[in-house]
Design brief:
Chain lengths: ~250, ~250
């Protein structure tokens, strides 16, 4: 039985040997939630960028750009980091590539490339990620983007939720991190949004739009897609695209 | 109101600025539990060593030596890493200095020396540590020794227990790490030993002696002392010694 482990911060990644394993990158508020939403909404592929300048350079190649600074949309880009930007129709996104700056999420992803496969996880595609991992049948590690390297509750809860879904097929007891995430996930039931209102990150984002985003981002199984890292970009395969378009 | 934060692994210490703060080093199984027990039993001071060779060199200067390898007492030393070694009378310890090798605990301590004060925490001296922190009235960080850099449940539970004791006097909501530790501590109630039986570390130590040690190490408030780092050794002040000797 393969095992599911959880890495609480990119700073702890040197402790994990990702070779032969699947890495699930998670940054619930809001990078991976927004990226899953973007691809489900018909974005063709995503280039995650560490720097705003890198993002803007891709605009010249026809990319839409998405970035935030201090919780609001950055100047001179097309979209902020809210998932609603891909749904509200203000900026048409279907058929476009998007360059997105995210500090924590991009760092977690770039540090995980030794893995056999690197995919994005969010509550929005929880069931799809669980199915993907079952099909891979390899050891998996949830890589929490965290907050500037620190442990954060929302990414940990995702790890616990995934462990709960996978406990019949994966060993979810091999590490204390997974055991703790499972217990925190059970504590957060039945109202994950209410539980997260106490988190330090959510309190930092204490304004209406952020709370709407948070309520959206904790919805489970909205999108049946698994963004995967391939050729330096995040994409979903054609079969997934067809399913997504039919929805 | 000062804040109480928790650092889940020595690997995360670079994220914490310890200047002006008190660091509470915790390695429940078993380094800090054994050191608290040793000082309460009349050991005059402790030199924590990373290497067995360093420990053996101090034997020539009159130190008792304590070390384990793979869960059992190392060859050629006086004591293992069980707290019972300081209580069972087989090796007289009162009035002696002890050189102890511990991998995780020593590393956590040496990486925390930028703090204003560095003290040892264990369930055994939980109330004493809480009182010490109240008197200091400074921001404090619990530094979990963890397991080879990884998150571990038992040190985290200590952080949660300390946060619960201090919540009237300290801000225990400023970081997600402290919030998570509090919730895990509440989940572990009322039977902390039973809860820890599922932890990866305890299962690694799955033999009778280790379980006896674990049951001992989760007892709260047995010793009213706070080991403090001073002049490259761990000691308790004279007032504490007097109290300890009178017990």
């Amino acid at each position: 039985m393969p095992s599911l482990d959880i890495c609480f911060s990119p700073e702890l990644l040197p402790l994990f040997d990702l070779r032969g394993r699947v890495a699930v990158i998670v940054d619930i508020l809001r990078a991976t939630s927004s990226m899953v939403t973007a691809l489900a909404a018909g974005v063709t592929h995503i280039v995650p960028c560490s720097e705003l300048a890198e993002c803007r350079a891709l605009a010249a190649q026809g990319y839409l750009t998405a970035a935030e600074r201090d919780g609001v949309q950055a100047e001179g880009v097309d979209l902020g980091n809210s998932p609603f930007g891909y749904l509200d129709g203000v900026v048409p996104v279907r058929g476009r590539g998007v360059a997105i700056t995210t500090t924590n999420g991009t760092r977690a992803l770039h540090l995980s490339l030794a893995a056999d496969a690197v995919v994005l996880g969010a509550f929005l595609n929880l069931a799809a990620v669980a199915s993907f991992l079952r099909r891979q049948n390899k050891d998996a590690v949830v890589v929490c983007a965290g907050w500037k390297g620190h442990f954060c509750l929302e990414d940990t809860l995702f790890g616990g939720a995934l462990a709960e879904r996978l406990q019949a097929d994966f060993d979810v007891t091999a590490s204390d991190a997974t055991l703790a995430a499972l217990d925190l996930w059970r504590t957060a039931q039945p109202d994950v949004a209410a539980y997260l209102l106490k988190s330090a990150h959510v309190r930092r984002l204490n304004h209406l739009e952020a709370h709407q985003d948070m309520a959206f981002c904790v919805q489970q199984d909205e999108y049946d897609i698994v963004p995967i890292w391939r050729d330096n970009q995040l994409t979903i395969n054609n079969e997934q695209l067809t399913m997504s378009n039919e929805q």
